[in-house]
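Dear Dr. V.,

Thank you for agreeing to look over these. As mentioned in my earlier message, I'm a first-year student in the group and I'm still getting used to reading structure tokens, so any feedback on how I've presented them would be very welcome. I ran two proteins. I've put each sequence directly above its structure. The first is here:
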Amino acid sequence: MNNLGIYGRLLSRTIVNGLYNNCSVSSSSSKNNVVAASNEAAGKLSPHLVSAVAGFPKDKSGKVRKGQIGDDAWLITHLKTADILGVADGVGGWRAYGVDPSDFSYSLLRSIDRITSVSNQWSPRNPTDLLSAAFRELLNSKRPITGSSTACILVLDHKSSKLFTVNIGDSGFLVVRKGQIVHHSEEQQHYFNTPFQLALPPPGQSGMVLSDSPESAHQSHFAIEDGDVILLATDGVFDNVPQPLLVAEMSKLGGVKDEIFVQQTANSIALMARTLAFDGRYMSPFAQRARDYGIQAIGGKPDDITVLLATVVL
């Protein structure tokens, strides 16, 4: 009964101001509709993702809008040549210095969105260059931007049907095929709970702030198959939900192309992460890692939670 009460309260919050619901398919724009229609007439369907986003801010006061959940930022964009998914997790410690941690993460992904929308100079096959270009835009912005974040960007190249990835820090992704993990990101940590991160310090403070270059990010690329399920999320998910539970939820989507079902599953993963994050007696993945470092920890890790979930259609 108590568990049902918790779920009921959380569901109520998602409706009011928490869980951002947004289904998306790459043929949603008029331009892509024309492309999809011509491909269907020729007996083939353009590669694309059926995707959804869901999440919770850590606190009731956390911002929730398109592209932002608390200090997390997210991006889903569908272009003629590629589909792009991205998350960035703003470092909350900046709040103690009067800096909004969401400004950096949100601005970084908005820059990626702008570059891919208006420029032909970027390549779907090199997301590291894309991340670097977005970071340079922030560095050279007329409006001073201070802060830091992790980032994970996935690009489905329509021509090759390959997924190109770049990840810096402890956000990450899983690719599940027929109930098994076939690809996953590599977490980057300097030491426990201190992930690699892009940063823009205040003027004169560059030596005082932990900062990694976009080129230090881990990158990979691999072929994907029709029906593959992709989860891209911030550490609020991976710190609280054991991998077997994530795989079990993702496996429900194998071969599913219904955006509503994708959205429902994304909601389920976000709700699971939120519930476990505030369970003080639960041995979370985060608590287990802390114990591996000799820190006696128990319970979930309250945090912003952002889930991007997608199925592959080839």
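The second protein is here, in the same arrangement:
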Amino acid sequence: MKSCIVTTLFRAAIPLMLAVSILDSAALAGELAGATLPDTLKSGDLTLKLNGLGLRKKSMFKVYVGGLYLELPTKDAGAILATNQAKAIRMHFLRDLTKVQLVEALQAGFEANAKDKTGQKAAFDRMLALIPDVKEGDTLTFTYQPGKGTTLQVGNKELGAFAGKGFSEAVFSIFLGPKPPSEDLKKGMLGL
């Protein structure tokens, strides 16, 4: 009788353990439109938490999934832009894009949203010169650290760093400003 109870409990525990491990691994990443982004990113000594994921579509095409990472998650875009805290935006591409396509899109976002266009234009143009062609599955990450500036990464390779909080505000406003690439992208990244 005792061995029968143990066998029954063991058989019941296996599916439960499998379910918990599946749920646990799902909690380690965010998924949208077939793209999986990690739930945290390292920024120096800090761990940034995934605030939300949004999908950028152009016409009927899915272009990229954007993930917003913050020290202190919030749904307030104005606060994210104004506060001097570490933050990151990761773009996970769902299709191939040329440098020209990316540069045009980022330039349009800068023109539509940056408050200090004149003061940030030279640095922004230097950043745009570093943007490469991207393939489906590639990532492009903008990370801001107070006192260190904003870095641009493709995959795990850092392409450049740009000083100043003002530059960070200009870059992050492309996605979180009043005229983002799409409202769905912005709302998703804000977790709305």
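From my reading of the second output: Residues 2-26 form the longest helix (25 residues). The CA atoms of residues 140 and 154 lie 5 Å apart. Does that match how you would interpret it?

Kind regards,
E.
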